[in-house]
């Protein structure tokens, strides 16, 4: 059984070094997972160190408090990646030297890298030389990379191929390779020579989210996440514009990103700007309250290896309408806790949103309860327990590996 969230492990604490190419204060699934995993490990008494690009020109080692827990963060000198609105990257020509220095200072029991691109490459290279146990987790999707490059389309295919070859080299050094869902594991195995990839949920701490089972008083559609191209939010706004005015629906997009102005213009063109709220980057308390207030959560993205935001919505007792793409069907069981639609099909998207917004109250309550039931299997404490076992080289509890029963869309 997993340890209690407030009970430190009774075994000898580990010294764990987590490497990430993207980390707080950046907001994305990989950064959120790394911070929550680290915090859960600290809470259990482990000594956790993070290696990540500096969030500004200031670099060095200091203590940061993330998800309510203090941890040692080694911030590497970084530069802005200007095709991206905020991303910073560690300098690739210094990563071997920096990785060697940090490993020799920390002397970790295990290195767990979250990306193969720069930090994971350096740490895994140097950890192999020192005989340190290596675990790798993949959050990489080529759609997420290509959007923020300046590469012309005719060379993008070659760039993706080279990226997967680099991933194969880094993950081949790991004793254990994981990714958030079985679909994502199959995806990684297909594009690399890595085999035996474990599907382990990123997890969510359901106690931080508040379902509301009182009868709804408005039809509020909410999306939470980065306002970027791969999220396909133009499809959400177009679907929203097709809804029957009698539903009196409103749409709230919680998050920031480079597509915000384009989407505001689209909402104006479609005549729905007065019913669409763009919050920009929001504090965690606001995000959670938005999920509590909502009637339905919408996730049109086609590039989700799991979607922490969708799990947070489900932990808030929301039905979900999502694209039938990548790992979203692991969470959204069609006709049970929400509906799936063919990616890019605006008419079907609008129809499925209408199904939820016009649903009788008793049926809506069943969908809400089913979301809570499904997401319960993704408890963050199970995830932390699983990685503790992996770090120690112990058998992995089957209960925490993500092998859900997926109900296909018709």
UniProtKB/TrEMBL annotation:
It holds the Pfam family Glycos_transf_1. Residues 215-369 form the Glycosyl transferase family domain. InterPro entries: Glyco_trans_1 (IPR001296), Glyco_trans_4-like_N (IPR028098), Glycosyltransferase_grp1 (IPR050194). Keywords: Glycosyltransferase, Transferase. It comes from the Bacteria. GO terms for molecular function: glycosyltransferase activity. The keyword Glycosyltransferase applies. Residues 27-207 form the Glycosyltransferase subfamily 4-like N-terminal domain. GO terms for biological process: carbohydrate derivative biosynthetic process. This is D-inositol 3-phosphate glycosyltransferase. It comes from Conyzicola lurida.
